[in-house]
């Protein structure tokens, strides 16, 4: 593999071409950070604020980053021809091994938002050996019922596509206040994502099936994510119910649940500092990002506990608990490995 694949690539997969953007070069045997955006967005709209945040550079210098754009969602994408069959959510997940194999990644740590979180979770269920960890923001593991489907169709008849998608991305409070963020998103969704292609992605996401996960021990042959997972949701997010449902279906010894205060539907945009710090702790719990490579603030919080072992032999897990609005929190050890925090 070349020293650096930095730049844009079109990767052929069994279900069509996939637009991929690589930042940096592989670092030894470390996993790649692989991102997947939400519907109505692409990797730039969804992740630029987060990955351009100053403290995030401390992480990305240690990992290669691979951004995935769903078919036809990248900036300046050509419109799909009439009759084009957009890949199903299962097929979108099945496209990802082609990317991992093309670049020779040993494994990945996924970061997904909304539809992207669903796709990455499906990928981790089907190809667990390729995944070391998952950060799933605003995930809804449940399929659409008839009532939900009808409500979505009705909304599509009475609202423009950008406004329909905004109701998925943002909280009602954000929409009612018509914040600068909402205004900017409305403009960018209309200008940067091909509307015909977006409609196809939106329709497919709203046709998704249940991920059919169950917490180990609850049913025979329960299927769940086998890697460490951090679930993230804003305390005022339209996705809160879905994320709580997902938390109930994951192994509590492998799962971290992070509920972010003062955050609506887009914590990676509105709270990049908090999310960056939580991501550092998550990577550190997986055995990466030693304290020497973390910020002075983070080191002061974690130094006394980074060598602590878990009671059941798993890698140390870090959890945060705080009521402060300006930090992720004080680090403690949690015997159940599940943390529910408001930060």
From TrEMBL:
Location(s), subcellular: Cytoplasm, Cytosol
Protein's UniProt keywords contain Cell inner membrane: no
The UniProt record lists the keyword Hydrolase: no
Highest taxon of source: Eukaryota
GO terms under cellular component: cytosol; membrane
Main location: cytoplasm
Keywords: Cytoplasm
InterPro entries: AB_hydrolase_fold, NDRG
Similarity comment: family membership: Belongs to the NDRG family.
Name the record gives this protein: Protein NDRG4
